[in-house]
Amino acid sequence: MWVFVAAVFALLYVPLFILAAFSLNDSIIVALPFRGFSFEWYSAALDDVDVREAVGNSLLVALAVVPLSVTVGTLAAFGLTRFRFRLKSAVAGLVGAPLVVSWLVMGVGALLLFSALSIPLSLKTIGAVHIMASFPLVTAIVSARLIRFDRSIEEAALDLGALPRTVLARIVLPQLIPSLVASALLVFAWSFNNFTLSFFTAGFETTFPIWVYSNVEHARALPIVNAVSTFVLGVQILLTFLVWYLLRLRPGGRSAAAPLLPGLATTERTDG
Amino acid sequence: MIRHSAIGTRGSAKTTNGDPAGAGTDTEAPAMSLVNVRKVFDLAVAVDGVTFDIVRNEFFSMLGPSGCGKTTTLRMLAGFEEPTSGHILIEGENAGSFPPYRRKTNLVFQNYALFPHMTVYDNVAFGPRRKKLRRREVDATVREFLETVRLDEYSARKPRELSGGQQQRVALARALANRPAVLLLDEPLGALDLSLREEMQFELKRIQRETGISFVYVTHDQNEALTMSDRIAVMRNGVVEHLASPEKIYLEPETLFVAKFIGQANLLPCTVEAADGGSFDVRFAGGERGRAAKASYRPDPGTAASLMIRPEHITLHAAPPNSGEGLRVRLGQETFQGAVVRCQGTLGDGTPIVMLIRLEDRFDPRPADDTSWISWNPERAYLLPAESDGSFTDSP
Amino acid sequence: MVSVAEPRRSWRRRRRLHGHPAKYLVLPVGLLLVLLIAPMTYLLVVSLRPPSITGISGPGGPTLDNYEQVLTTDFYRQVLVTSAFIATTSLVITLAIGIGLAYILAFRADRLEMPLLLLLVLADQTPTITKVYAWRILLGRQGVINSGLERLGLDDPIDALLFSRAAVIIVLSVTFIPFATIPVYAAMKAIDLSLLESANDLGAGFMTRLTRIILPLAAPGIFIAIILVYIPLFSEFIAPTMVGGTGGYMIGSAISDQILDNGNWGVGTALSFMLLLLTAAAAALSYYLARIKQLSSA
Questions:
Q1: Which chain B residues have a beta carbon less than 8 Å from that of A156?
Q2: Which CATH number goes with the domain that contains B155?
């Protein structure tokens, strides 16, 4: 049994470790045997204007997408969990659609529409499409929390004289914080990592995944690809782990963090 | 002190408060008045025209089985539901459409509904802070009510670090700290274990007396209601069946439902013989006679009726009592209950009967053929209408 | 009349307390109408235009010619068959691994449960492009596996490792493992342990417990996993392009090539819309199944 578990996790992680190992290999050829230990590809990556621009663009887009996506997604979660209205299931289906529709199809559609309307492709178009496609993840996470929310706690606050907006600020939002933090982290990684949507809506702009994609055929660039990829990988894993750890250590957070784990992964997709 | 005025039942009551929309707080007005309040959900009528007053400094209970409309009534008092029709007045002021945060009522929730992310202190301070009181006033209020519920040493704890009983007290202090005109309590003791529940009943009564605030207490537990209340409204199917003091409800229930729901009642089928002045003569199926001093209605001679006798008001005899007023009973199972023995028996016409006999009055040994006679003090017997086939369906 | 008007009352009260739902929903719905519904509609419109030599569109009214071309041309039929084969094979492999892993995580892992779950999520939080690229290093002609084999004395590198159908299947099966595992894990976690204990007590062995209790009760989770994995697999684009070669050419690559390189919008949009229909069908099915068993994937 443990052999099976070890094998599965080896399949998931060994390629990444090998990638990391090659990023430290003192050779321009990404192949065995190892020639020695070197940080030269990291410094080469730092000096590379294209790399700096691509990673910078990805960061910029992700940092702009996170607050907007979390806001829109939370609004949708409130609208869908707190009210009953005639078109509710239609709206819920619409909000869920970006979670199932292929990114490729969404990207192609956006590209055609932008070009038909003569909207120039830029980081802004990438960001807009990222917000549209990622806020339903936030809605999923936040609604899951809102549904489990004890309504009588809000009623108690109203009953004690709090105005509805005070209830929101003092009672609801403080309890949503773990979900909002998890959503923000998820959307950040999602936006930074997304290739397919960016690829179709980027025009002449480059993001980190697009840069990797366009350089895998250039043998001379591969060591730099290794270095940058390893760096990005490391930062993301550390960040995820950190947030998970922080949520876990909050008093009572253990139970708050546990359901977030499956929540994080089931709402995410791997097709791009 | 008990007030019996303005008791409307069965949705037929008239408006007792004059102009229900009368403006302004009236210091003489009842703490709360309900005037013909109705609430309809989907197709179901949850509350079907309820009218009563809650006077100041009173412990008032709404008692009934689940689905009787007591919780819906409470939620309308708190402002979480709007009456479909009718009026709710708080201290004489029409509050029908006021949202919860504009009402002088506070609610103690069944599940306590404490704010999990706040300390005990902050929970209790939540209401006073909303009123924009000065820090010192908030602090004084919080300390006062934490002391009232005897939790002054726990102010820095979070709710999850407290036991169920302690959480209950925090919820109480939090609601009281807003100094409501009426404190509403929604089955607040349901989640506690028996001994804690009895202790809290005592506490609630004490706190109600100390603070002088009217309590409206919703429960399905008749013991709770009988123990604590000044007055009880027994509800069923959205209407108040009987509103009176606990003694009155227990001894002189207005309907068969109330008789059966509160305590145990032996309901003996009989025929009314005579209804003169102060008492009623009845005849049982076997020809025996009996008497009751009071009745819930005006029985006509010759009609069928039910004679209610509480199990503890029955006396057992080894031989037919001299008065000639007695019924033959075949004794069944006995259960020892400490101070009393609970005896089951069957009357001649097959009616089952339950008796609570003091230990020293018990037959020991039992009569050879299990036969004995029962009698009762007519002052403790009470006449109710005859049970129709489904005794629980005699709704108005 | 009354029956329609009355139930709204308490909701109207809620609306007075929290505001109208439109206040919350106007922004999200507007965003989706502009950036999802409008493009999808335009996609359909373009796909129905008559084909032309220049690729964009010819003269004439709406026609199904583009769809006909996709379904009758050998090349596109081959692409559809390849896509279905790769997606189905990868689904079976990843699901088999996922169910096994979910079982171990849910019932056997004890203290390792949370750490392993975290590792699974972390593996999912990494850029897909990086994962696929890492597999390229492993599988390439000069890659780690081939050089390893070379050292063992095998002189001829195995070309088939990269740029093949097998490569796409391996990469896809592995990258989708977290996806397939977590819904099944969630469903298994919801199983009352006393059911398994009583089955054990009644003399059921491991296989009986697995086939008679665990799998039937986890079935909704397995269905959700299938839908979550199968749709993205079908429209996979990165792995076929980066490790697929001609043998692993899938719909996604075809759409991208037609739209971006050949400017053949007709066929590209027709393929896209067919993918969209497939998605809609799968989503409807999953919605139906999720309603049957009130088990949510998240």
A1: 107, 109, 113-115, 174
A2: 3.40.50.300
Q: How far apart are CA B343 and CA C35, in angstroms?
A: 79
**In this structure, what token pair is assigned to residue A225?**
């690809």
Dump pLDDT digits (tens) for A92-150. 889 988 888 888 999 999 999 999 999 999 999 999 999 999 999 899 888 888 888 88
Residue C267 has pLDDT above 60, yes or no: yes
Q: CB atoms < 10 A from the CB of B196, how many?
A: 16
Shared domain check, B244 and B225: yes
> Which residues are CB-neighbours of C185 under 8 A, at least 6 positions away?
A262, C101, C102, C105, C106, C117, C221
Under 8 Å between Cβ of B327 and B300: no
Q: Is pLDDT above 90 for C35?
A: yes
Tokens at C152, concatenated:
């063992």
Token code pair at residue B176: 């009281």
H or E segment to which residue B309 belongs: strand B304-309
8 A C-beta contact, residue B52 and residue B243: yes
pLDDT band at C54 (very low <50, low <70, confident <90, very high): low
Which candidate, C65, C62, C66, places its Cα nearest to that of C258? C66
Indicate left, alpha or beta for B30 from its phi (over 0: left) and psi (-120 to 50: alpha): beta
B148 and B216 together in one domain = yes
The complex scores an ipTM of 0.86
C10 close to B (CB below 8 A): yes
B142, B222 Cβ separation under 8 angstroms: no
pLDDT digits (tens, 9 = 90+) for A146-188: 888 888 899 999 999 998 889 989 999 998 988 898 889 889 9
CA proximity to B280, closest of B257, B296, B299: B299
For residue A126, the domain's CATH number is: 1.10.3720.10
Best of A84, A150, A159 to disrupt the B interface (most B CBs within 10 Å) is: A159
Rounded to the nearest angstrom, the minimum Cα separation between B84 and chain C is 8
Instruction: Flag whether pLDDT at B132 surpasses 50.
Output: yes
* pLDDT at B394 exceeding the cut of 70: no
Q: What subunits touch chain A, counting only 3 or more CB pairs under 8 A?
A: B, C
Contacting residues of C for B99, CB less than 8 Å apart: 13, 16-17
CB pairs under 8 A between B and C: 23
* Residue A9 falls inside a structural domain: no
Number of domains in chain A: 1
Peptide bond into A178 cis (omega under 30): no
E strands within B56-203? 59-63, 85-90, 93-94, 105-108, 182-186
C271 at the A interface (CB within 8 A)?
no
Among A190-194, A208-212, B16-20, C156-160, which is the least confidently predicted range? B16-20
> Is A113 within 8 Å of C32 when comparing Cβ atoms?
no
What is the total residue count of chain C? 298
Q: Is residue A62 part of a domain?
A: yes
Interface test with C, best of B71, B84, B98 (most C CBs within 10 A): B84
Residue A111 lies in a domain: yes
Q: Examine the pLDDT at B2 and tell me if it is beyond 90.
A: no
For A52, the domain range is 40-266
Across A240-259, b (16+ Cβ under 10 Å) vs e yields beebbeebbeeeeeeebbeb
Residue C295 has pLDDT above 50, yes or no: no
Q: Is residue B166 in some structural domain?
A: yes
Q: Is B102 on the interface with C (CB under 8 A)?
A: no
- The answer on pLDDT for B322 being more than 90 is no
Percent of chain B whose predicted confidence (pLDDT) is above 90: 48
Residues B102 and B240 in one domain: yes
Q: What is the pLDDT of residue C2?
A: 28
Residues of B in contact with C14 (CB under 8 A): none
A159 to B126: CB separation less than 8 angstroms, yes or no: no
pLDDT 10s digits, B21-32: 444 445 678 889
